[in-house]
Amino acid sequence: MGVIGALMLLLVVSVAVFAPWVAPYDPYERVQVTPEQILTPPDPQHLLGRDDAGKDVLSQLIYGSRVSLTVGFTASFMAMVIGTTVGLVAGYFGGRIGNVLMRVVDFLMVIPELPLMLVIIAVMGRGLLNIILVIGLLGWTYTARLVRSQVLSVKERQFVLRARSVGASSVRIMTRHIFPQVLPLVIAQAVLDISVAILAESTLAFLGLGDPTLVSWGNMLNFAFERGMSRRAWWFLLPPGFAIVWVSLSLVLIGNTLDEIVNPRLRTHHLFDPRRMIAPTLAVRPAQEREATEPT
Amino acid sequence: MERSNYILYKIGFAVITLLAVLLFNFVLFRILPGDPIKLIIHSPRMTREAQERIRASFGLDKPVWFDVQRLERGDVLGAFDTQFTAYLLNLLRGDLGISFATRGGVADLLKQRVWRTVILVFLGDVIAIMAGMAIGLIGAWRRGTRLDAGILLLALFTWALPTFFMGIILVLLLGRGRLPIGGMVTPGLRPADGLTYWIDVGKHLVMPTIAMAIVYTGEYILIMRSGVMEVLAEDYILTAKAKGLSTLRILRDHALKNAMLPMVTMIALTFGYTVGGAIQVETVFSWPGLGRLMYESIQKRDYPVLQGTFLLLAASVIIANLLADILYSVLDPRVKVE
């Protein structure tokens, strides 16, 4: 599933990078249209029809991938850096510092995210930078919790004690010894966070708080919903929505697979159908086979 | 620590969180660019004195936080006669300010709309929780099979689907069907009796509820599936199996009961997302609840309404989490403060 996700993501990234070459028209260009050309259904010149301003939907879709990916990657990177730092410090030092940091995490977790983002963006203005900052600054709590719980167990291991006994400083132990141990988990979480950030951006834009100067999937959906819904302009409504689903599904598939690799939780359990068990070690096999042949 | 201490601690945390939200709401409203009075006064011919009088009537002539000059004069009580104190006192009286758009009280507006959102969130969430728990349980039990892979894929798909887009798909698919897709009552309906009215409202509620339920079922499937998988690996499951209990009984009496405990916390934690989902679903289906109100006040730049709605939503999520924590400590007396 992870490979499929990676291929799906690769497609979107290459479309975003080569947008000017792939897109048949430039969505930022002014167009002269007659009233009949507004919201026309797909035809050979405009494969996904035209929007409420007579612009080509396919070109907007292609350019829109840039905004989604930019927001997704930068906001999730911000969240990853903040979350990892907070989690490392809270887990390593524990005590009062750790307590205070984790109460801040609890605090942010309990406040409904979307209403908070709406209020902040509505007041601070809907520029792209504001949107990225809000999503990044509010999205690090889960990473912090994850890192902290890992650090709590990692710091009890022998190599940490050994490093300390040879005089390594706390900062060095955290960055050189503990950080590499939690990095795989952090990356799996960061991939999932990219999809969360992309969903958040498109939701804000759909609710009318997207950057008005940019062509983005969320903005397209906002326009399509406001003006294309009554005409059932499916060629304008569905493509940006499915594009969002495509990207976030690809990231979720990658993240989920990474998570299963780096987080080897219980791969099996006691009610597991023994016939479906993947060949275990030789020593266990006879017992397994006996169980499997028995009628249940 | 004892359970009563645990509950007291949780109440304390909820109170502090609420106060922080109040503070945040107050500060955010003050850093708005421009003069709030200018947003209300549209006439350029109004004299300075008249403007000042309006400013005074809103208490905006007072200092924001703390009156240092009056404190220096020895007037300790008077030093707290500020905008912040007035804001808190107004809140205590249930006064959330006046809407820019309708000039009506924000609190009245919220009171009128809150139940519509409560019923939508409640119905959508209950259906999603029941379906998610059942499907998640089957997925965990059949872990690694095609059925489980299908369930997982379905759950991940709905997770990747923006809630508002689910609503749009439903409208496009079923918009021409017999169920209404917008509003709360059929326009122009003159109900002969209360029953006809409520049946009409109920019909309008079906589509938004389905949209909410589908999206959040995926989320609960994922939570339940991983929870049950952990429980099934416990030794007491092996014991139950060794006793010769049927799979159904093990799943029902041993796995489900133990996996439901963490679900209580997870349901409360996801409640914040569910509220976010309600905003999107209400917007798509024009369901006139708090979410639609938030959308409308964004369009109209009606900041007092926006702030009031946020405050109400945040407070309800905080209180819901507190109740879940208390419920959890009743269900599982082992909990204690970290």
List the helices and strands and how they pair.
The complex is a heterodimer of chains A (about 300) and B (about 350).
Chain A: H1 2-17, H2 19-22, H3 57-93, H4 95-110, H5 113-124, H6 128-138, H7 141-154, H8 158-165, H9 170-209, H10 217-228, H11 234-262, H12 285-293
Helix pairs in contact in A: 1-3, 1-11, 3-4, 3-6, 3-7, 3-9, 3-11, 4-7, 5-6, 6-9, 7-9, 8-9, 9-10, 9-11, 10-11
Chain B: H1 3-30, H2 36-40, H3 48-57, H4 68-72, H5 83-92, H6 106-141, H7 146-160, H8 163-174, H9 194-232, H10 235-242, H11 247-285, H12 290-299, H13 303-331
Helix pairs in contact in B: 1-13, 6-7, 6-9, 6-11, 6-13, 7-9, 8-9, 8-11, 9-11, 10-11, 11-12, 11-13, 12-13
Task: Give the structure's gist in a few sentences.
Chain A contains twelve helices and no strands.
Provide an overview of this structure.
The complex is a heterodimer of chains A (296) and B (338). Chain A is an all-alpha fold and 296 residues long. Helix content of chain A is 70%, strand content 0%. Chain A is built from twelve helices and no strands. Chain A has helices spanning 2-17, 19-22, 57-93, 95-110, 113-124, 128-138, 141-154, 158-165, 170-209, 217-228, 234-262, 285-293. In chain A, helix 9 runs antiparallel to helix 11. The longest helix of chain A is centred in the middle third of the chain and has 40 residues, at 170-209. Chain A is elongated. Chain B is mainly alpha-helical. Chain B has helices at residues 3-30, 36-40, 48-57, 68-72, 83-92, 106-141, 146-160, 163-174, 194-232, 235-242, 247-285, 290-299, 303-331. The longest helix of chain B is centred in the middle third of the chain and has 39 residues, at 194-232. Chain B is flat. The termini of chain B are close together.
